[in-house]
Automatic annotation (TrEMBL):
It comes from the Bacteria. The keyword Transcription applies. The keyword Transcription regulation applies. It comes from Nitratireductor rhodophyticola. The lineage of its organism: Bacteria, Pseudomonadati, Pseudomonadota, Alphaproteobacteria, Hyphomicrobiales. This is Sigma-70 family RNA polymerase sigma factor. SUPFAM superfamilies: Sigma2 domain of RNA polymerase sigma factors, Sigma3 and sigma4 domains of RNA polymerase sigma factors.
Length: 190
């Protein structure tokens, strides 16, 4: 990547994409695909779905770039699109599983030796407790701690007031603390 390409801001790349510049979209893809993929992977638990959705996000960027108003960072906008697409895909998958009676075909990974071994490690236990949170609490924790988003940015991504984000974060932390304590972990690290 050239020095000039590295210095081009994401907002400029979106503006160029809005004018039909495919190279600008490719650069946005290179910068943000991994982050979007990881976010969707944590939301869906499926690498296949995450890969498909991450690619769909950038197709949506191609379509929606002319409407981007730069009220938030481009990364925040991308994660907002990703969250919407992940929720839609999960809803469709649940409806399909219920419609076709395939719910019992979903593999239960909780009993694998790998998962049992990972539970010995506090970090792995914490991740499993995060995954056990409600979707609203899990998403707030994911955006704050794994993606480094501010409360304001999380509110924009989730389309909820900042006060709602703060409340969800408070209860998520409380539930995580209780789960760790119940599992015999103290609140300190490790």
């Amino acid at each position: 990547m050239s020095g000039a390409a590295e210095q081009t801001s994401d907002a400029v790349l979106v503006a160029r994409t809005a004018r039909g510049d495919r190279a600008a979209l490719r650069l946005l893809f290179m910068r943000h695909h991994t982050r979007v993929f990881r976010f969707v992977m944590r939301q869906t638990g499926s690498e296949t779905m995450a890969d498909e959705i991450a690619n769909e996000v950038f197709l949506e960027v191609w379509r929606q770039a002319p409407r981007f108003e730069a009220r938030s960072q481009v990364s925040t906008w991308l994660l907002g699109i990703a969250r919407f697409k992940a929720l839609s895909a999960l809803r469709k998958r649940r409806e399909s599983a219920l419609d076709e009676g395939q719910a019992e075909a979903i593999a239960d990974s909780a009993d694998t030796p790998e998962v049992a071994t990972m539970k010995d490690d506090k970090a792995a236990a914490l991740r499993s407790f995060v995954n056990a949170l409600s979707e609203e609490h899990r998403t707030v924790v994911d955006l704050a701690y794994y993606h480094g988003k501010s409360v304001t940015e999380i509110g924009e991504i989730l389309s909820v007031p900042v006060a709602t984000v703060k409340t969800r974060m408070f209860y998520a932390r409380k539930k995580l603390g209780e789960a760790l304590q119940a599992a015999g972990y103290d609140r300190g690290w490790p």
